[in-house]
Records
---
Amino acid sequence: MKKLLKNTEWTVLIVSLLLFAIGAVALFSATQSTEYGEFKKQIQWFLISMPFLFLAYSIDYNVIARFSTVIYIIMVGLLIGVLFTKPINGATSWFQIGDVGIQPSELAKVVVVLFISFLISKLQVRGRKEINRFWKLLTAFIFMAIPIFLIIKQPDYGTAMAYVFAMVFILFISGIDKKYIIFTIVLMAVLVPVVYNKLPQHALKRIEVFLNPESDPRGDGYNIIQSKLAIGAGQLVGMGIFQGNQTQLGFLHPKTTDFIFSVIGEEFGFIATAAILVLYVVLITKIVYIAKTAKDNIGSYIAVGIGGIFFFHMLENIGMTIGLLPITGIPLPFVSYGGSSLVTNFICIGLLLNISSRRQKSYL
């Protein structure tokens, strides 16, 4: 136990708690008009997350991975089942249980990363280069494509991209041949125009608004314009808690999830937003270090897959709030409001602590 505690990369836990604390303060300010309803729920979800984090840390990740096949099948079943639920904001992404909404696509992230990591490690039983056998690589792609396809059907393109990033990060360190990487890049370049023409109208509208928000300032371009106004108004130190015009007067929407970064920028300024970016850089860097120093391939794959998900969420959420990327409804990890997302993120942190603790020696 002493060895496990000594080897554990506690920095990832400290950073995640700091990000949660910043998000909690922002939620406290953003929800004063609703008697702090979402803030209170977020605290409850945080407390619910802690036992899951402890379990993910305390049980050997190789043991957890052995059960990932069964859990993967269950999650695929849930992703199919959610397609038959009543749409919320145009998407069938939630199981509504009383006042609580459960989003399977969020919970499935960690399951898919575990299963794909376990699968690739088994496909490489005779050596890392075995992943370059066409049928083995195709097998990995098929099992990743199933949840991605089901999530696109909801439709939730942003979350689907998080899965893609996880897969890319895992394959990149798995020993995949460069020819497959080059082929994929060329294929994507060819397919982008085709996929673009096949996108549904609402997705095309988001891209058009991203390119020119002022073309529809009172419609689809409204949210991004208000977001940039909020962040710009914060300047260096912000307007102060409860003092943001866009935040408190209801111009930002949804301010507790998609645009929580805008709330922080307006009320706490550039210093706070820069601190968030630094914390994410530290988190991603430590995750890469954990992947590099893991005792086995499966540990490296799980860590880097989690890193891919966090990296995409950070990049997309911050990018869309400042107008550099299209709006996709992706939450900011540990900061945005959301129960399913928060539980999943802390399970991921537990797994990272788990992998780091079981290294052969202390790297601190």
---
Amino acid sequence: MSPRRRFVRAAMKAPYLERDEEHVLAVKWKNDGDNDALHKLTHAHMRLVIAIAARFKHFGLPMSDLIQEGHVGLLEAASRFEPEREVRFSTYATWWIRASIQDYILRNWSIVRGGTSSAQKALFFNLRRLRAKLGQGAAPVPDREIHRQISEALGVSEDDVARMDARLSGPDTSLNAPVIESDGSAERQDFLVSDAPLQDETVGAVIDQEKRSRRLHAALEVLNDRELRIVRERRLSEEGATLESLGKALGISKERVRQIESRALEKLRSALLDPEAGPVLT
């Protein structure tokens, strides 16, 4: 007999706990940190873990792993359980066991991470069941109608249903898999189209930006201190100071600030267009 079978058989033979006994064990664990009480409490509920794990075996993951993850959820439930609320531990633990197993499935069912939102999780774990239920009639139901009904049942968009349905309909395909129609030297990733610019274009853009930055800093040197301050605060800062605020700070009118700014911009334009400084990059 395999170790897993022996474990399952031992778990199924564990005695049930009466409500009062369960409450006493939960109190000992919570208040005194009694590990023996924790062991008795969790051991008695391992059959619950196995039963919940069996509901998810159709996802193709090892049953032993599902049980192990369910046990993690059982321990989490034990650490959070509040016996003074007078509810059965199994009722509370069921949610944590199921959540732990579902999280494990979402992380390991595919190399592509999925089910990141509550709506996607609901789709992932319910789509196959709902599709099978809707397809039990004598007449075949079109996919579009099935997607519509599932969308209404789960409160998600039809596009999300269609995408999840397509994802669950087939296994993952490696981008390094060879393309059958080719001579064997081409891989699937070779036919992916990227909208990103080519590497030489990216490098060229970075170099041009650095040149423009150096050109601008050199042109700013033609301005005096007051002109430079106005240009920096009006044109080179994210917020952009107003004429009135700069006028108050400099002790001049806002019209005077506008005149100085206009003159400074003209000086900058002349410096940037100076042919001796090199071509202007656009």
